[in-house]
Design goal:
This protein is of the alpha+beta class. It is about 20% helix and about 30% strand. The longest helix has 13 residues. The chain is globular and about 80 Å long.
């Protein structure tokens, strides 16, 4: 009889055995195709509190029934960052488990305020576009529009578009200079890959102002002060807290939201990757940065996020800090809150940006 546990025999068996692969390659996607993701999970208060607690998001509306009732909710809602992670997590096996760089996300919209625990998710994605990468012939670029629904009512809860580099089953032929033959003149910017040039200190405003508090009026008054300076001031500030990435954040949080990407839990697979080790899920990094920012705001609810980009790897031991610039304030047809648009940057202990994006939220008024 064959001893399958004999080391030499087993090694020979592995050489002959086919691998049952997970995920899809670039060639497997077709523009206009709708992909139903299964399974979608049931949102839980435990999962929401685990996510929010680990990422320093401590708005009491997501923890205390009395505060949730004051804000007009029948029950403590799940945290919006947890909702986003659960919607995106359900898509990973079908869309991006093969790996490839997460190039960005746009058009994130929250369609229902106060999604309750116990809501079952149904998630689908539509392939918006495909493009070849001019600089990486082993990859293509795919953009999907993803929507998370209440499985029982069919109501839209959250939607966004995201773009990833996806491995090709067969790399394209190149011109010998690293560019594909068909797109030798196509720039990295045209293909969706970042090629931002470093800015000089001379580009910065002379003075960076901080709001006096976290109410809507504080942000409005700070912008007014900046405008009085005639363009040589901006409202921008750091947040004091930092959060060091640990094993729980790298593996447990994404796996709890059905995110099966090997980048976050398979050290063997990542040993030969550009990072050389497992990396943090981008939305964990994002949530930490937004948690830092929200701690200095009187946030009522999230409205939208746009132009979200992930600039560098984050690994275990990195510490994530937050930086915020206030872009705009707008009065709303309500007495209790106004709308504020921010630009947020997450950066590590080496002062290197790792995430950026714009975010709009309703912020409480003082009176």
């Amino acid at each position: 009889m064959t001893d399958w546990t004999d080391s030499e025999t087993f090694s020979a068996a592995l050489d002959r055995a086919a691998t049952k692969e997970k995920g899809n390659c670039f060639e497997d996607f077709a523009e206009g195709e709708t992909i139903e993701h299964s399974p979608g999970l049931e949102l839980s208060r435990h999962g929401s509190e685990l996510w929010a607690g680990q990422t320093l998001n401590y708005d009491p509306v997501y923890w205390r029934p009395s505060v949730a009732e004051e804000r007009g909710f029948e029950a403590v809602p799940v945290h919006p960052d947890y909702l986003l992670a659960c919607v995106m997590g359900a898509t990973v096996e079908d869309l991006s488990e093969k790996g490839g760089y997460f190039l960005g996300r746009d058009g994130l919209r929250y369609h229902r305020a106060g999604v309750e625990p116990g809501t079952e998710l149904r998630v689908e994605s539509v392939v918006e576009s495909k493009a070849e990468s001019s600089s990486r012939p082993a990859f293509g670029i795919v953009t999907w529009e993803t929507t998370g629904y209440d499985a029982e009512t069919g109501e839209r809860l959250l939607s966004y578009t995201r773009t990833n580099m996806i491995p090709r089953r067969e790399p394209l032929a190149t011109d010998g200079k690293g560019k594909t033959a068909e797109n030798a003149d196509k720039t990295a910017e045209e293909s969706g890959e970042s090629s931002d040039a470093a800015a000089s200190d001379d580009d910065l405003p002379e003075e960076l102002l901080a709001p006096e508090g976290g109410y809507f009026e504080d942000f409005r008054e700070a912008l007014d002060r900046a405008e009085e300076r005639g363009g040589d001031a901006a409202v921008a500030y750091q947040h004091e807290r930092g959060r060091t990435i640990d094993d729980t954040m790298v593996a447990q949080l994404p796996l709890a939201t059905l995110n099966t990407a090997k980048q976050h839990h398979n050290a063997d697979a990542m040993a030969d990757s550009p990072s050389g080790e497992i990396v943090a899920y981008g939305d964990v990094t994002r949530s930490i940065a937004l948690g830092h920012a929200r701690s200095d705001e009187r946030t009522v609810r999230e409205v939208s996020c746009d132009d979200e980009r992930f600039h560098d790897f984050v690994t275990v031991g990195d510490t994530i800090y937050g930086f915020t610039r206030v872009e705009e304030v707008r009065e709303e047809d309500r007495d209790d809150a106004g709308e504020v648009t921010f630009e947020h940057v997450a950066f590590n202990q080496r002062d290197e940006p790792v995430y950026s994006g714009t975010r709009t939220a309703l912020v409480q008024k003082r009176n």
